[in-house]
Design brief:
By secondary structure, this protein is of the alpha+beta class. The chain has one domain: Alpha-Beta Plaits (2-Layer Sandwich). Strands 2-3-1-4 form a 4-stranded antiparallel β-sheet, covered by helices on one side. Strand 2 and strand 3 form a beta hairpin. It is elongated and about 70 Å long.
């Protein structure tokens, strides 16, 4: 390899390293899921369900849609599980119906 090609390779690799180091890290443990919660059928239920779900360590974000009875959650699977979230909801009389639907982004 001549010196020009070697310099170009170093520049390209350096630019690639810099661009990768500036990117937002993507955590493999972060997952997004939709849960059907039939008992969440009124707008007044959203604050309580939000409190219940966010009290589970590892839940990062949550949106509730009472008209469709759907919770959309982002959670860290290294800190919690779908089962732990479902159990918390069930204990508060908001059981999950059906299977969770994982969302790929």
């Amino acid at each position: 390899m001549n010196s020009t090609a070697a310099r170009l390779t170093i520049i390209v690799l350096g630019a690639l390293f810099i661009s990768l180091s500036l990117c937002r890290p993507v955590f493999a443990a972060e997952q997004k899921v939709m849960l059907k919660v039939p008992a969440m059928n009124c707008a007044s239920h959203i604050p309580l369900v939000t409190f219940i779900v966010r009290s589970v360590d590892g839940v990062l974000d949550m949106e509730g849609n009472f008209s469709e009875q759907i919770l959309t959650l982002t959670f860290d699977s290294e800190k919690t599980t779908i089962e732990a979230i479902k159990d918390a909801l069930k204990k508060a009389n908001y059981p999950v119906s059906g299977e969770p639907e994982f969302i790929k982004e």
